[in-house]
Amino acid sequence: MSKKRIGIIGAGPSGLAQLRAFESAEKLGMEVPEIVCFEKQENWGGMWNFTWRTGVGKYGEPIHGSMYKYLWSNGPKECLELSDYSFDEHFGKPISSYPPRPVLFDYIQGRINKSNAKDYIRFNTTARWVTYDEETKKFTLYLDDLKKNRTYSEEFDYLIVATGHFSTPNMPYFEGIDDFPGAVMHAHDFRGADQFIDKDLLLIGSSYSAEDIAVQCYKHGSKSVTLSYRSNPIGVDWPEGIEERPLVTHFEGDTAYFKDGTSKRFDGVVMCTGYQHKFPFLPDYLRLKTKNNLYPDNLYKGIFFQDLPELIYLGMQDQYYTFNMFDTQAWLARDYMMGKFEIPSKEERRKDIDKWLADYDKVEDANGDVDFQAAYIKDLISYTDYPDFNIDKVGDMFKQWLKDKEDDILTYRDKTFKSVITGTMAAEHHTEWMDELDDSKKRYLMDEEQVEALEESEA
User: Fold this and answer.
1) What is d(CA 18, CA 6) in angstroms, rounded to the nearest whole number?
2) Can you tell me the distance from the alpha carbon of 433 to that of 231, in angstroms, rounded to the nearest whole number?
3) Are the beta carbons of 12 and 123 closer than 8 angstroms?
4) Counting Cβ atoms within 10 Å, is residue 66 exposed (0-12), middle (13-18) or buried (19+)?
């Protein structure tokens, strides 16, 4: 009997978690299926890859990444720490709770570099189309090798969609924006605050990206930042130079008009208006259709497509928990594909989905969101051998993080937390976040003496 074949689309944190889950089983002496992972970019890491490119990439494909310069983690690293690979193990010393992107990317790569994952990944390869044959019970995945400009197809028994959902912008229209003379972009194409130094910037939206881009541009020298919200303001105690106003009604030249009757002139507009779940390679009957929320409908256990459980979606939820949640999903998906976890009937699956959706409907605030996602992860872990971690303590950290941001949006990244994996208390960073304009890994990992010596030499 031939080995089952598994196709994974995407080698970001979710796709890498799936490869790691199978490697974990293999190390325990289990025979694993044949696995092939397809990644559109030249390297793994998904959203954590930074590129200067916007629009389309080297081979004309839509750019996946939304990362920008000077991005620092906006949540404690202790909340995403992997059970089987601690920050202590990777860096060999305590580091602060809020590292910059290059440092987190280094950590993501650390675990996967210890494995033979690269043997399973075909880079510069994009999924073009998928079909499913009811008779053979197999998926046919049509692919483009972007480097060789070659189209081909392969068959799989299981297909895993790990493409993420923060890469296809939701771009609204406002009357008059056609004639706005300054830069207009989505947060997806924002690559750093440099172009907005000494400028008046308008951000439309009240999401995490609006909050983070606002604070970054303020930190790096924008003249002013205005956030325009549709329903509710973010509502923190903003410093002078950042303000919130109701939604834009229209533009006239370089002036934006707001619902409260006020207006202001701007040099640039960044749409922080969210993303669409977009799967252009999937036919309608296999496509997950959802908005960004903590429990998408039609996914049993938030993973298995209700109409065809052999189609598996990873990381499709809105996220408080991230890397460790992707791991728990990948472990359960692995157990199903290896015959160790049995999926119930369609009716039973529907009941389970409905129960979770009903619980989600009862959530009233951000703390409730955290508790809901914690309960979800506990449910997943109960079925697998994923290394347990203190999910409730991580939840408490998230709640403290929410409070810290409310207390002071400019200083919450200077706080420290204790690892639930190793018990290590995070180090204080050598420079307060508002004064740290260099986000390089080299600068970040310096100690205070090295920073002092460097600053003296530059003086």
Assistant:
1) 11
2) 30
3) no
4) buried
Tokens of 27: 């190390």
Q: Which residues contact 453 (CB under 8 A, 6 or more apart)?
A: none
Which phi and psi (to 5°) does residue 208 adopt? Answer: -60, -35
pLDDT, tens digit, for every residue of 163-187?
988 888 899 999 999 999 999 999 9
Residue 183 DSSP one-character state: E
Global pTM exceeds 0.85? yes
With H, G, I as helix, E, B as strand and everything else as coil, classify residue 422. Answer: coil
DSSP state of 113: H
DSSP tag of 47:
G
What angle do the packed helices 101-113 and 13-27 form, to 10 degrees?
30
**How many residues would you count in the chain?**
459
Extract the tokens encoding 167.
């890469």
Query: If you search the block for the tokens 């977009």, which residue do you land on?
Result: 278
CA–CA separation, 151 and 277 (whole Å) = 25
Bridge partners, 127 (sequence order)? 143
Domains and CATH numbers, the chain: 5-167+275-401 (3.50.50.60), 177-271 (3.50.50.60)
46-62 pLDDT, tens digit each: 778 888 889 898 998 98
Distance between CA 396 and CA 320 in Å, rounded?
Answer: 12
How many angstroms separate the CA atoms of 340 and 345, rounded? 16
CB proximity list for 457: less than 8 A, separation 6 or greater: none
Residue with tokens 């053979």: 136
